[in-house]
Sequence to fold (379 residues):
Amino acid sequence: MNSKLRLPCFLSILIVFLSGCTDPIEPEFEFQEGLVFVEGFATTTPGNSYVIISTSAIEFGVYVVNFLEGASVTFENVGTGSVVALNEIEGTYVAPQDFRVAPGEQWKLNITLPNGKRYESSVENVLQPIPVSDLEVRYDTELEFRETLGGRFLPGHELLVSFDDPVGEENYYYWSYRTYENLDFCEKCFQGIFREGECQSLGSNFAGFPYFDYACETDCWQIRFPESITVYSDRFTDGKAVNKLPIGNLLLYTKQNMVVEVQQMAISPDAFEYYQVLRDVLENSTGLNAPPPAALVGNMSNPEDSEEFVFGRFTAVGASATGLFIDRTFIGEQALEQRQTIIFEPVVGCPLPPDCTTFAPCSETRFRTAIRPELWVDQ
Fold:
């Protein structure tokens, strides 16, 4: 069964799966503040294990989900007792870059919030990864219809995988991917200037320009993550070759060349059912602006309060990784993200507080990196 779950960034409670969307919605029912959301993965591929913790709130009459800072987050190997601490980086808790789990191991997630409240996951078994035999993209000028982007069809690349399903096993799949696009400008400061690593407001002393742009000091890449969740069951394809299965759409946000890195994950039946519930929330309810069902609760709990709902899930997975470089030089369609007029600080005779500059560093975050993607091709 192939289930693709679309999660528009501005919609309600499932925002936690989008890792960075912040647009709120108008509440139409009684929301509860202080709900905890967890999204976490520990994988067999290094550099891809992370946890995001968020809490619900109503701010200025709208419902929002905010990243929760200052938590203590660890992965625990149940078999050996070893503990791996995650570091907080720009809205995400990330494992060390070289961390990976191994097939056959058992892992759990432990969280301690700044207020001392604790959460933990059930134990997850790491399954054997199933390799991708082929990865390709297919460009389509009318790839996807979006009401929220002008009610029109949008161009982009469809992402397709092929693989050989093992014989005589129940297998469940989940795909994640990230894309890298070259970033020319690392900061834009509105009504202010970039100093000491951040945008600083000039207040009433500022006049003349709505913003300043700052070019990247070094090569820098913007990272994007899936806008949908795709899972698959081999119920009807056991032991067969699965060819050109669509797993996501890479919309033409810019016309920069792109590297896409894909993880094909082997997940448990429980994890598969969890993501199936998410699909049902979108397709069978009156919309996301409705209370989430209890079945949406994953494998997280408060060991000191069994009555507390903790939304989300920690999943330890066997993953195979692959990727490719996408040349978008000759695409004729207009990109979705239109660049505003570039405005630099007037460095010559600069009237602004010193030291005047037109550059900013490429800060390492979940959504940006100065580390050159392995498959990047200079052109």
Summary: Confidence is low (pLDDT under 50) at residues 1-30, 285-291.
